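ligand=flavin-adenine dinucleotide
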Amino acid sequence: MRIVPIDDSVAERDGIGDHTAITTAIAEDARKQGAQVIEGHPVIKLEDDGLSTTVSLENGDAYIGEKGCVVATNTSVRELLVGSFGVDLPIGFAVPMYGILKPVRPFEITALVEDSSQRFALKSIGGNRVMLSGEGRGRWTESGASSDIGAFGLKFADLVARFPQLHDAEIEVIDASRREATTYDGVPIIDRVPGAENVVFATGWNGHGFMIAPAVAEAMTSWIVSDSQPALLRPFALNRFC
Ligand SMILES: Cc1cc2nc3c(=O)[nH]c(=O)nc-3n(C[C@H](O)[C@H](O)[C@H](O)COP(=O)(O)OP(=O)(O)OC[C@H]3O[C@@H](n4cnc5c(N)ncnc54)[C@H](O)[C@@H]3O)c2cc1C
């Protein structure tokens, strides 16, 4: 990730990032630092005896968190905390929809472009590809996510009106499989689990969790290591809903 100095009002490439590339790079770096990254085996239960936390996976494996445990699984934080501790969170979810487009000719924008009517947002994500998101949700049913092709078509039409050179761009993917936790006040919830003080959770990003994740991760680490809640995290406490 490149940090760009801000001059008057424009920071080139500010707000632009390829989620997948950044996430895999962070995981790779964590591995280099000695972390064990396990994929494809969901956590099904957490138990806390006041001294340590046991994390049980669907495949039968279990891990002990001696210093603490962070639960940051977006919408499923709610299910995990209800099932493990009987703590229900006041969160709902949204189903953001996005598309990856591959322009026929070289095309790059160096800022996040948002239409003022919020119909679309566009950013370059490398490999001569652009991500189209913004308004227009997918649908969520018991069997999973489905994209709203009609809404995507409207978005695409708005995009082409603004960027005619994208009229023949290939649509690589349309996806609505990433549920996003929402809160009623639009602010995330980051706190200890009442009654299970070794467990800290973070959810309710309302569509803006990626950008603030590095700062949140640093503050949560400091909370667990020092056992003292950073002032930065106080506005995100669960008890604001009580
Ligand atoms: C199309 C789109 C565009 C977005 N654009 C932006 C943006 O421009 N800026 C911004 O800041 N944010 C953006 N967001 C939101 C951002 O991506 C999320 O807020 C952020 O990824 C949340 O991070 P997270 O790690 O908490 O959850 P996620 O990224 O959702 O990751 C949660 C992980 O937990 C795993 N998981 C779930 N349940 C379990 C379980 N039981 N056991 C183990 N693992 C589990 C999931 O498989 C997943 O890998 C966007 C989101 C979408 C979908």
